[in-house]
Amino acid sequence: MEMDIINPCCAGIDIGSKSHFVAVGQGLEDVKEFGVYADDLTAICLHLKGHGITSVAMESTGNYWQNLYVELIKHGFGVTLANGKFTKNIRGKKTDVKDARWIQKLHSIGLLTSSFLPDEITEVLRLLMRRLIA
């Protein structure tokens, strides 16, 4: 049974420390590898815009997602930052390409929810409290 597409103009990104894999569809030709530096993050945004993407899902892997998240928001994309435990269901040999396509598929059918991200004021308060307690 095929599920309905909820987010037709979406992408999935497998976040890594050395590269990010971006899937704009389910074909092998729909996945492209990018680096992790500032120019690479801008290139990801331009690539996504070139494919008519408006919404992006990615895992909150370590802290590697943070710079890309900021760049995507700056370029006007809707971003779903998903907890990795909700995206880990691939059978067989795990690859970055498969992960990116799986995240894109889950996002396209509306099965990913975004993690909580505190606003700037809350983040400052958290930092202050951690320093007071430590």
Description of the molecule:
Helix content is 37%, strand content 17%. By secondary structure, it is an alpha/beta fold. The protein has one domain (10-133): 2-Layer Sandwich (Nucleotidyltransferase, domain 5), CATH 3.30.420. Strand 2 and strand 3 form a beta hairpin. The longest helix is centred in the last third of the chain and has 14 residues, at 120-133. The chain is globular.
Reading side by side through the largest sheet, how are the strands ordered? 3-2-1-4-5
**Name of the top-level CATH class:** Alpha Beta
Q: What would you call the shape?
A: globular
Poorly predicted regions: none
Number of separate domains: 1
Give the averaged pLDDT, no decimals.
89
Rg value: 16 Å
What is the CATH architecture descriptor?
Answer: 2-Layer Sandwich
- By CATH, the topology is Nucleotidyltransferase, domain 5
Q: Roughly what percent helix?
A: 25-40%
Number of helices: 4
| Helix-strand topology string | EEEHEHEHH
Strand content: 15-25%
Question: Strand count, sense and closure of the main sheet?
Answer: 5 strands, mixed
Number of strands: 5
- End-to-end Cα distance, whole Å, is 53 Å
**Structural class per helix/strand content?**
alpha/beta
Write the topology of this structure.
Blueprint: E1 10-14, E2 20-23, E3 31-34, H1 38-50, E4 55-59, H2 65-74, E5 78-82, H3 96-108, H4 120-133
Parallel strand pairs: 1-4, 4-5
Antiparallel strand pairs: 1-2, 2-3
